[in-house]
Write a structure and sequence with these properties.
Elements: H1 3-13, H2 17-25, H3 33-36, E1 37-41, E2 46-49, E3 54-59, E4 65-69, E5 76-83, E6 92-99, E7 107-113, E8 122-128, E9 137-140, E10 150-156, E11 160-165, E12 168-174, E13 192-199, E14 219-230, H4 236-242, H5 253-266, E15 267-270, H6 284-288
Antiparallel strand pairs: 1-4, 2-3, 3-14, 4-13, 5-10, 5-14, 6-7, 6-13, 7-8, 8-9, 9-15, 10-11, 11-12
Bound molecules: 2-acetamido-2-deoxy-beta-D-glucopyranose (NAG).
2-acetamido-2-deoxy-beta-D-glucopyranose is lined by residues 113, 115, 119-120, 122, 205-206.
Main location: secreted
GO cellular component, one term: plant-type cell wall
Function: Catalyzes xyloglucan endohydrolysis (XEH) and/or endotransglycosylation (XET). Cleaves and religates xyloglucan polymers, an essential constituent of the primary cell wall, and thereby participates in cell wall construction of growing tissues.
Length: 290
């Protein structure tokens, strides 16, 4: 246990980015929450357990809770294992996301929308660039995400943001800024890792029809295995030079086929095909992404 946390700390510091990544890549027993994150809100509802290997976030009627990484990263690969709120989780939203600061912020979101007992969870993804989001895609999960830990990953580099569930790519948001589409892409603002459990009963579950059953509180989600292998800095050129496998990672033909199948089987909402929202036609990145 002694060397694991130190190793991840080195990764987090961004020292020897690529060399350390090779070591960290195979290690599923990742960082130590005591060293890697701060619990930032929730007044004791967030707890670090098992010597830093486990973190639980809970929500009751008065508050949810959340944490954030001590470091910020410009590009990287971010893995988190989550076990979502079991039983009746209607109205709850559990999150794992990356975000920079300020009104022109960039953000890469995984949000898990709870449901009534036995009804399926929804994975909600979104990408903000320069303060503008509205790029939601939602998926059904192909397993019960409340029974065991599953791994949710984001790879962010100058050309792609890829979302993975247990290693299966579900979304590839490409940098099209250089092409005719001219859609801004997160390339310069360092981001922190964030996680939270919060109350969104107004909209989260079946469009707000199913409210939170507060008699079931507290609602608890568990996190472990945060592995942030990124460049901890804000100098884009230096981060590009420091490299790391994530900097050049993109889906090969097999990965693209997996992505196509995941979209065909599990996607339940895509902003690109939402004709009610975009009556004048879909946003430019939708056409260019084909
Ligand atoms: C909850 O379950 C219902 C019924 O199966 C489904 O329509 C809905 O999409 C599920 N997810 C959410 C977040 O409401």
């Amino acid at each position: 246990m002694a060397s694991g946390p130190k190793l991840m700390r080195t990764v987090a510091l961004g020292v020897l980015c690529s060399a350390v990544l090779l070591l960290a890549g195979g290690a599923s027993a990742a960082g130590n929450f005591y060293q890697d994150v701060d619990i930032t809100w929730g007044d004791g509802r967030g707890k670090i357990l098992d010597g830093g290997q486990l973190l639980t976030l809970s929500m009751d009627r008065s508050s949810g809770s959340g944490f954030q990484s001590k470091n910020q990263y410009l590009y990287g690969r971010f893995d988190m294992q989550l076990k979502l709120v079991p039983g009746d989780s209607a109205g709850t939203v559990t999150t794992f996301y990356l975000s920079s600061q300020g009104s022109q912020h960039d953000e890469i979101d995984f949000e898990f929308l709870g449901n009534a007992s036995g009804e399926p969870y929804t994975v909600h993804t979104n990408v903000y660039s320069q303060g503008k989001g509205g790029r939601e895609q939602q998926f059904r999960m192909w397993f019960d995400p409340t029974k065991d830990f599953h791994t949710y990953s984001v790879v962010w580099n100058p050309s792609h943001i890829v979302f993975y569930v247990d290693g299966t790519p579900i979304r590839d948001f490409r940098n099209l800024a250089a092409s005719a589409a001219g859609v801004p892409f997160p390339t310069s603002q360092p981001m922190r890792v964030y996680a939270s459990v919060w109350d969104a009963e107004e909209w989260a579950t079946q469009g707000g029809r199913v409210r939170t059953d507060w008699s079931k509180a507290p609602f608890v989600a568990s996190y472990r295995g945060l592995a942030a292998a990124g460049c901890a800095g804000s100098d884009a050129a230096a981060c590009a030079r420091a490299g790391g496998a994530w900097m050049f990672q993109e889906l090969d033909a097999a990965g693209q086929e997996e992505l196509r199948r995941a979209r065909a089987s599990y996607m339940i909402y895509d902003y690109c095909t939402d004709k009610y929202r975009f009556r004048q036609g879909p946003p430019p990145e939708c056409a260019a992404a084909k």
